[in-house]
Amino acid sequence: MFIGYYNLANSVTLLGLVSALLSCVVAINSRTSGTVDSKKIIYAVVLFLVSGLCDMFDGRIARGYGSRTRKEKLFGIQIDSLCDMVSFGIAPVIIAYCAGFNKFYHLIAFCIYAVCGAIRLAYFNTQAVEETKDLNMKCFTGVPIPFCCMTVPPIMLLFKIFGAANLFVSIVFAVVYLMTGIAFVINVKIKKLSLAQSFILIAAVLTCVVFLFLI
Hints:
The protein is 73% helix and 5% strand. By secondary structure, the protein is mostly helical.
């Protein structure tokens, strides 16, 4: 009745997309009468991180299906990358912009970040199709785009403490987004994280989120 391939893994991927979209809505609604509601920005960050959590496990769930056809695997790769572009290429930019980081150098950094994210995802898809028989990449070339889930929470701590008007924080935001974008397209091989490493990263991000709410 409908086009597409529907399974648990793809449902988790789409859940991440919805969470990222909601994070953008919350971030946009944080600006009222020229002021920024920092609590709403933090809520937006939390929703953004939920999309990161979904991305961390959708691939593992997909690999648990041993009977998927090649078309189903290709569909999973494509929909994952399309959702990742929204979740990790666009949502972090909207959150930062709505938080008040809207100077010209921020916009330059954001544009470079988004462009590099798109290149990274397209290159990954090309590699998966052209360089593997089973469409299962054993390692990444360039830093995976969900890595931004590790960079956004710490710099949001600076925003929560000092505000967007602080020159140091303002420059840090631009530099972090710029460097993260460059990391997406740098020609280095990176192994996939183990389950234990994934949980360590989750714990680190959750600790950062706790501080965001406590400050």
